[in-house]
């Protein structure tokens, strides 16, 4: 959460709805409460990191002293770049497009206005996330084994097949247009 969002909530930071103040934690329970509706952003980044192979099991190591897994600094940087991209992705909110970190800041301001009785309504339902699926290895294998004759019968151009095969061989996100995906899935899973 941004420092500005934290400063906005400072007068009410000890109010707790979900997280109760415990001596070993910070006294600012409201900060933890506000992060809960946006936790999914980090969860999506973790899933995407493993599905796109930005992170893999060899990137982790076990420390025997405290029974925790750690991951290499290079892998940590790759994951932070992916997480930063999630927070910087755009979302439509109040007839404009904002980055998620800006939306979180605006929600903190709305909450502070609500708590100070300057705003009647406070809503965490909008904006709602639009999650996109990441294709797994089986779809990549299907694309790599799809023959030119099958794709031409489906009406998929040679250049499209070439692009899909090239993207399937990398760790990059596999993006397939909706029309092409429907044609491809009719062959692969029927």
Question: How would you describe this structure to a colleague?
Answer:
- The chain is mostly helical and 190 residues long.
- The protein folds into two domains: 3-115, Four Helix Bundle (Hemerythrin (Met), subunit A), CATH 1.20.120; 137-188, no CATH class.
- 51% of the residues lie in helices and 8% in strands.
- The chain is built from nine helices and four strands.
- It has helices spanning 3-9, 29-35, 39-51, 73-87, 100-115, 137-145, 148-154, 158-168, 178-188; strands at residues 60-63, 68-71, 90-93, 96-99.
- The strands form two sheets. A two-stranded antiparallel sheet has the order 1-2. Strands 3-4 form a two-stranded antiparallel sheet.
- A hairpin with a 4-residue loop joins strand 1 (60-63) and strand 2 (68-71).
- The relative contact order is 0.11.
Outline:
The chain is mainly α. It has two domains: about 5-115, Four Helix Bundle (Hemerythrin (Met), subunit A) (Up-down Bundle); about 135-190, no CATH class.
Q: What is the CA–CA distance across the termini?
A: 46 Å
CATH topology of the largest domain: Four Helix Bundle (Hemerythrin (Met), subunit A)
The CATH architecture name of the largest domain reads Up-down Bundle
Q: Whole-number radius of gyration?
A: 22 Å
CATH superfamily of the largest domain: CRISPR-associated endonuclease Cas1, C-terminal domain
Strand content: 5-15%
């Amino acid at each position: 959460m941004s420092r500005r969002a934290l400063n906005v909530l400072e007068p009410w930071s000890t109010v707790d709805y979900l997280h109760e103040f415990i001596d070993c934690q910070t006294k600012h329970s409201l900060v933890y409460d506000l992060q809960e509706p946006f936790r999914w952003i980090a969860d999506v980044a973790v899933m995407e990191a493993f599905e796109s192979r930005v992170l893999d099991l060899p990137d982790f190591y076990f420390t025997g002293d405290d029974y925790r897994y750690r991951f290499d600094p290079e892998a940590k940087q790759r994951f932070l770049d992916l997480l930063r991209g999630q927070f910087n992705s755009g979302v439509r909110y109040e007839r404009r497009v904002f980055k998620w970190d800006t939306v979180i800041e605006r929600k903190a301001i709305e909450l502070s206005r609500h708590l100070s009785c300057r705003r009647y309504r406070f809503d965490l339902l909008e904006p709602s996330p639009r999650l996109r699926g990441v294709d797994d290895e089986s779809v990549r294998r299907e694309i790599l084994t799809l023959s030119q004759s099958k794709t031409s019968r489906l009406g998929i151009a040679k250049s499209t097949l070439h692009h899909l095969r090239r993207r399937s061989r990398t760790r990059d996100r596999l993006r397939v247009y909706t029309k092409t995906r429907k044609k491809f899935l009719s062959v692969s899973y029927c």
